[in-house]
Specification:
3 domains, alpha+beta, 343 residues, Immunoglobulin-like, 5-stranded mixed β-sheet, binds heme C
Length: 343
């Protein structure tokens, strides 16, 4: 069958594989409906005119047999049209239920006035970014009421209900920025659900994700440290106000001396802090349980450096730790101050 989708010129741009597959069937159904409309309205008008001219019901002489055939034909045609409409979209409907193997997953969280898109590397953005030729699974949930994820350029409109996960996938084809919205009125904040989908070339997508995921961009080392303290779970066990929780407080930790469970005295310098984060249970501080989770493989050197810089801001010995031979800390107060003034 010719691709009637070509006729769909007034549609939003078709920017995904499914969009391209759906426009054809949509136009077929439209055309079939148009033919029915023209034939029926045409016949009605013709009959009215014949009735006016001849003063009797048209087809008045039709036998019972012919009229039965006509009725059967009409019912069969109507059922046929229904099947055609269902069949045309069924392939895409089924295809959409399962993403291709090895698709990345973006977790979509809908809420009144807010969309969150969580990328495979953990970055969360308020716009959806995808790459051409790269199928991506969308796993969708709602925090409050019923919403829908509607992206006309992908011919996508999926209900997102609280308490259950909806799943679909897309493979974008044309780079550009398209509309994203909810089609279900959700009260407060409904207008803010209008966002953008940005379709990148794959290389641009990788560059975008790397750039926005860089927590160091636009932040001082100390600020990154504080961010990590809050986002990596440290705050659950360590306070910044001197109170001990599961672990010792971060207040006046840097540069201070501690006794370990094995009776040694250690100074919390850069090297010790790094060791404590990567392999916390090697030297356990007296009075505490060895329950801290090791962050080896989770926090790299740069992040540990940032946490250390944050710890220095919390300590009265943030500058030169007493009794510690620690070259890295010597000129730190200067950098700390200039960086803070600079912001
Ligand atoms: C599950 C609770 C828990 C979490 C989460 C946790 N810690 Fe700890 N941490 C402890 C405990 C308990 C100790 C003391 C025992 C020890 O030294 O292993 C400790 C010790 C430390 C020490 C050495 C303290 C000293 O006085 O010398 C540092 C530094 C430290 N943690 C940093 C961190 C950082 C940074 C994070 C987050 C990336 C973190 N911790 C997350 C429980 C935790």
């Amino acid at each position: 069958m010719t691709n009637l989708g070509m006729l769909a010129t007034w549609f939003p741009e078709a920017a995904s594989t499914h969009a391209a597959q759906l426009d054809g069937p949509f136009m077929q159904v439209m055309m079939a409906a148009l033919v029915v409309l023209v034939v029926f309205v045409g016949l009605a008008i013709a009959f009215v005119m014949q009735f006016k001219r001849e003063g009797q019901f048209p087809l008045g002489s039709v036998t019972l047999r012919t009229s039965l055939i006509l009725r059967v034909l009409w019912v069969v045609a109507a059922i046929g049209m229904g099947l055609l409409a269902a069949g045309a979209g069924f392939g895409v409907f089924v295809d959409r239920t399962e993403a291709p193997f090895a698709s990345g997953t973006i977790i979509v969280t809908a809420a009144q006035g807010d969309w969150d898109f969580a990328y495979p590397n953990g970055h969360v953005a308020d716009t959806l970014h995808v790459a051409t030729g790269t199928p991506v699974r969308l796993l969708m949930g709602s925090k409050d009421v019923m919403h829908s994820l509607s992206i006309p350029a992908f011919r996508l409109d999926e209900g997102v209900a609280p308490g259950r996960l909806a799943e679909t996938w897309v493979e974008p084809t044309v780079p550009g920025t398209y509309d994203l919205k909810s089609n279900i009125y959700s009260g407060e904040g409904f207008a803010e659900l209008r966002r953008a989908v940005v379709v990148h070339e794959p290389a641009d997508y990788d560059a975008w994700l790397a750039a926005v995921s860089d927590i160091f961009a636009g932040r001082t080392l100390e600020e990154v440290g504080e961010l990590l303290y809050n986002t990596q779970g440290c705050a659950v066990c360590h306070t910044t106000n001197g109170a001990a929780l599961v672990g010792p407080s971060f207040l006046n930790l840097y540069g201070h001396e501690f006794e370990t469970e094995s009776g040694e005295t250690i100074v919390a310098n850069d090297a010790y802090i790094k060791e404590s984060i990567l392999t916390p249970n090697v030297s356990v501080i007296k009075g505490f349980q060895p329950v801290m989770t090791p962050f080896a493989g989770i926090l790299d050197d740069k992040k540990i450096e940032a946490i250390t810089a944050f710890l220095k801001t919390l300590s009265d010995r943030g500058g030169a730790p007493e009794g510690a031979v620690d070259e890295t800390a010597v000129d730190t107060p200067v950098t700390t101050e200039t960086q803070q003034e600079g912001n």
